[in-house]
UniProtKB/TrEMBL annotation:
This is Enolase-phosphatase E1. Keywords: Amino-acid biosynthesis, Cytoplasm, Hydrolase, Magnesium, Metal-binding, Methionine biosynthesis, Nucleus. The keyword Phosphoprotein does not apply. The gene is ENOPH1. The lineage of its organism: Eukaryota, Metazoa, Chordata, Craniata, Vertebrata. PANTHER family: ENOLASE-PHOSPHATASE E1 (PTHR20371). It comes from Ophiophagus hannah. The keyword Electron transport does not apply.
Amino acid sequence: MKVTSWSLSKLSRPGHGDLADVINLSVNDILFPYIRENIRDYLDAHWEEEECQQDVGLLRKQGIVPIPLETRDGEEEVERVIQAVIDNVLWQMSLDRKTTALKQLQGHMWRAAYKNGRLKG
């Protein structure tokens, strides 16, 4: 099927229960709240994984909200860094930021949630 400008404009007319409205509702009413409500559980479960550490490193590199480096071993140290990551993510989301680091972490969280059945779609 060829997508024309007419069909795209028809999809994006507000207030007509169209595809754009459905997608927007899904993101705002399901996916973003999922991040806010589950970020701690996700970080606790995936903290030692390379992908999670890459996400944290990218958040740290973008430097929007400081995330300290882990300087020593110990549960208290890890908790301090995890809380900084949570603060960073929630702050960015509260301002509707669209940084690469934020979107990457959100995408990884959603993928894990669909895979383990916590989100269905």
